[in-house]
Write a structure and sequence with these properties.
The protein is mainly α. The chain is built from eight helices and no strands.
C-alpha cells in the first residue's frame, strides 16, 4: 500500500475553503491614519494671528497720527517760540532746496514724457473714431489740472523725497542720535520732521504747477507734430474754472503734508542696523505712494459731491 505525499491535491487539509460568488474580495489591512489637528485648535491659532495683525495695524495708525499731531504742534511751538532749542537754524531753507530744486528736473522730465504719451494715445484713438481733435487740448488740460498733475508729482516725490527722509531719520535712529537729541532737551519731531513738512507743503505745490505746465506743453508739441493739431485749438483753457485750480491746490497740499509725515514715521520706527534703515526706506516709499492714492480718491469723491459731478 503506497502513501500519498503530504502536499497531494487530494489532501483537503491545506486547501482554502470555497468562497461564495457574491462575497467581495479581501481588503488589504488598513494603515492607521495620522491624528489630525483639531479644527478648534487651528481656528484658535488663526484667530490669535488675525487679532495680533489687527492690533499691530492699529498701533501703527495711532503712532502715525501722533507723529502728524506732533508735527502740527511743533509748527505752533516754532511760531510761538522762535528761539526754541529745537529750532534748527537754516534747516527750512536747506529742505526747500533739497525737496524743490533737486527734484525739479526729475519731475519735469517724468511728467513731460507722460504728457507726450497721454496726448499721442488720445489723438491716435480719436483719429480712428471721429478724427475731431477740437476737444483734445481742453479736456487734457482739465484732466492734468484736476488729477494727473498733482498725483504724478506726489508719486515722484514719494519715491525720491520720502525715501531720503526715511533713510536719514532711520540712520539717526539706529545710531542713537535721536536719543541724544532727547537727552539734550530737543524734540526729534521739531528738529527733524517740522522743517521737512513745511518745505514739502511749499515745494509740492510749486513742482505741481511746473509739472502741469510741462505736461500740457509736451502734449501740445506731440499733437502738433504727430497729428497736425493747430496749437490755437490745443492750447485752449476756456473750460477751466476756479474749482479746478482749487482742486489742484488742495490735492498738492494734502500730498505734500502726507509724504514727510509717513516718511518720518517710518524712519522713527527703524530698528537694528542697516537692515532696519532699508526696511524704513522701503516702507516710506510704499506708504507714501499708498497715502497719495487714498487721499486722491477721498478728495476727488468729496469734490464730486460738492460740485454735483460737474468737474
Amino acid at each position: 500500500m503506497t502513501e500519498q505525499p503530504e502536499n497531494s491535491p487530494e489532501d483537503p487539509i491545506d486547501q482554502p475553503p470555497d468562497k461564495p460568488a457574491d462575497q467581495p474580495p479581501d481588503k488589504p489591512p488598513s494603515v492607521p491614519a495620522e491624528p489630525e489637528v483639531p479644527r478648534a485648535r487651528w481656528l484658535h491659532r488663526r484667530t490669535v494671528a488675525t487679532g495680533a495683525a489687527v492690533l499691530a495695524v492699529g498701533r501703527a495708525v495711532l503712532e502715525l497720527w501722533r507723529v502728524y499731531v506732533g508735527t502740527l504742534a511743533g509748527i505752533v511751538r516754532g511760531i510761538a517760540r522762535r528761539n526754541a532749542p529745537g529750532r534748527a537754524r537754516g534747516e527750512l531753507w536747506s529742505q526747500l532746496y533739497s525737496i524743490g530744486n533737486r527734484s525739479l528736473v526729475f519731475i519735469l522730465v517724468t511728467l513731460g514724457f507722460i504728457g507726450m504719451v497721454l496726448t499721442y494715445e488720445s489723438c491716435l484713438q480719436l483719429s480712428r473714431v471721429t478724427g475731431d481733435f477740437s476737444q483734445i487740448g481742453v479736456q487734457s488740460l482739465r484732466l492734468i489740472i484736476s488729477d494727473f498733475g498733482p498725483v504724478l508729482t506726489a508719486l515722484m516725490l514719494a519715491t525720491r523725497v520720502g525715501a531720503g527722509i526715511a533713510a536719514e531719520i532711520g540712520s539717526m535712529k539706529v545710531t542713537e542720535q535721536i536719543d541724544a537729541l532727547r537727552m539734550s532737551g530737543v524734540l526729534p519731531i521739531d528738529y527733524l520732521i517740522v522743517p521737512r513738512f513745511l518745505a514739502s507743503l511749499v515745494m509740492t505745490l510749486v513742482l505741481t504747477v511746473f509739472g502741469c505746465l510741462v505736461m500740457f506743453g509736451a502734449g501740445g508739441l506731440t499733437a502738433r507734430y504727430s497729428f497736425g493739431v493747430n496749437p490755437h485749438v490745443y492750447f485752449d483753457a476756456s473750460l477751466i474754472r476756479g474749482r479746478h485750480i482749487a482742486l489742484l491746490i488742495i490735492k498738492a497740499e494734502a500730498f505734500g503734508a502726507a509724504i514727510p509725515v509717513v516718511a518720518g514715521f517710518c524712519g522713527l520706527r527703524a530698528r537694528g542696523s542697516s537692515e532696519g534703515v532699508g526696511w524704513a526706506t522701503t516702507a516710506a516709499v510704499i506708504g507714501g505712494s499708498f497715502a497719495v492714492i487714498i487721499l486722491d480718491f477721498i478728495i476727488s469723491a468729496a469734490a464730486l459731491l460738492v460740485t454735483g459731478g460737474d468737474l
